[in-house]
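Progress against Task 2.4 (sequence-to-structure conversion) is shown through the following example record, which the project officer requested during the mid-term review.
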Amino acid sequence: MDRDSAEGGRGGAADLVSALPPEISCRIFSGLDVESLCHASVACKGWHRLIEGSERLWRRHCLAVRAVCQREIDGDRGHGYSWKITLLRNYWKSKVKQEWLSGKYSNIPSQFSLPDKSMYPMDVDTWGEILEAELER
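Structure tokens generated for the chain above:
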């Protein structure tokens, strides 16, 4: 088996997804979470082209993140960013922001008690939202 066939670069036997109609392949990939979708997009050239070229795959995840980061998502889309770029710019921020808003870190004794992934660069408006949520608890 040559390298292109193994990687699916020319629709080789190892790349069954690229052999399917694009609509079916997109439907298969639509069941993946964000991290799995990113991993799949680097698995082979055929998958990369399909995933990177499908705004619909990224849009669904981006709208889920919008529930936590509406201002950020709307701002990025307003500036013309694609669904994928908007998602990548806001995915981890939404995870961290959701943990803060849910009160996960409300009763910590010191900054040294925070897990490594509890911080993410956030603007003053986001910290304002978090502080308002803390004051309401």
